[in-house]
């Protein structure tokens, strides 16, 4: 099968790799859509690696001995390889599992855990069945496009009475804007890139503030009647962003961090009374109905959020686009355009 790899610093190629086979609870999914995430950051100066990608949507083609999924099921492929038996996994918080499985060693196979590829090997319980009424291209966003900020929204209880501030309008931040709009919240955003600022407006952000403006926090407070926002989500990982969000949020408000980056720089929290959340991914075992309802309500906004759709063979060009920042979410199509991906 075809799969992408970083073959040298700055170089990404599509190589031939062995196609995985099922084993016990490990099933094979034919990847029809591979949403691109942060792997492009490893291309320049990063290590050579042949397993790129951690999210996907596709069809089960080899169900092994699974009692959870069947051949032909449309599924969203969740990240990670949690053990499935520890308290964190059984509660659905598999992303925090300290005993991640090495499924290639278990099955004595050389390849099969990457999603910038035509097929992937996955434990059946880490596949989220996509309801029949949801297009596969929308279901594919239930991973990193919507997942981290969905977790944040749930933990903060964002609703139509809230003003939500989103820091960073990359793909994760854009997903947060979509979900804030779907929940009826008033959405404000922070972004420097003109392309992404414009896209944020299209997805439901009322105003987009420039963090390079030294008066930005005062502007946000002015826009909220001097009160500050009710909830904020930090997705950028930019230095100083954490402090900015804390100061722009009202007393007894909430701030969620979904970015992986710098240590947090926060003002004294006691006088602010803020609730701080660290959010990784969403719990698909307990929250799937809410996620799929969110996807249904978002509808065409998700089509706007996906700005580029490209063949797997064009992965290097797709990463070039990601380098510019002039994009939302990018989809790779490992098997080209099909009826399912339309």
UniProtKB/TrEMBL annotation:
Q: Does the keyword Electron transport apply?
A: no
**Coiled-coil region(s) at which residues?**
none
Q: Which SMART domains match?
A: PKS_ER
Query: Keyword Cell division: yes or no?
Result: no
Q: Which Gene3D superfamilies match?
A: Medium-chain alcohol dehydrogenases, catalytic domain (3.90.180.10)
Family matches, as Pfam families: ADH_N, ADH_zinc_N
- Residue limits of the Enoyl reductase (ER) domain? 10-332
Q: Which cofactor does it need?
A: Zn(2+)
Q: Which UniProt keywords apply?
A: Metal-binding, Oxidoreductase, Zinc
Source domain of life: Bacteria
Q: Any idea what this protein is called?
A: Zinc-binding dehydrogenase
């Amino acid at each position: 099968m075809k799969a992408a790899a970083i073959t040298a610093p700055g170089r990404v190629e599509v190589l031939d790799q062995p196609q995985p086979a099922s084993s016990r609870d490990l099933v094979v999914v034919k990847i029809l859509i591979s949403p691109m995430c942060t792997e492009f950051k490893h291309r320049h100066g990063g290590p050579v690696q042949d397993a790129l990608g951690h999210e996907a949507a596709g069809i089960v083609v080899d169900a092994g001995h699974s009692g959870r999924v069947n051949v032909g099921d449309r599924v969203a492929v969740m990240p990670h390889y949690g053990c499935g038996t520890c308290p964190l996994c059984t509660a659905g918080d598999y992303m925090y599992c300290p005993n991640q499985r090495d499924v290639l060693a278990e099955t004595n196979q050389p390849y099969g855990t990457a999603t910038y590829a035509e097929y992937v090997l996955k434990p059946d319980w880490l596949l989220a069945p996509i309801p029949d009424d949801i297009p596969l291209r929308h279901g594919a966003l239930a991973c990193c496009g919507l997942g981290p900020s969905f977790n944040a929204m749930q933990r903060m209880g964002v609703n139509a009475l809230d003003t939500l501030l989103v820091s960073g309008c990359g793909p994760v931040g854009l997903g947060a804007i979509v979900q804030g709009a779907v929940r009826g919240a008033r959405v404000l955003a922070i972004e420097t890139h003109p392309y992404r600022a414009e896209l944020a407006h299209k997805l439901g952000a009322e105003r987009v503030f420039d963090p390079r403006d030294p008066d930005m926090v005062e502007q946000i407070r002015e826009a909220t009647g001097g009160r500050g926002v009710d909830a904020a989500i930090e997705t950028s990982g930019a230095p100083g962003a954490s402090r900015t969000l804390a100061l722009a949020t009202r007393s007894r408000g909430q701030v969620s961090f979904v970015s992986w980056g710098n240590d947090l720089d926060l003002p004294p929290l006691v006088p602010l009374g803020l609730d701080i959340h660290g959010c990784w991914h969403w719990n698909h075992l307990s929250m799937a109905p809410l996620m799929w309802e969110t996807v249904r309500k978002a509808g065409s906004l998700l089509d706007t959020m996906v700005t580029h759709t490209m063949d797997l063979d064009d992965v290097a060009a797709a990463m070039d686009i990601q380098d510019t920042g002039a994009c939302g979410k990018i989809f790779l199509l490992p098997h080209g355009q099909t009826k399912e991906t339309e």
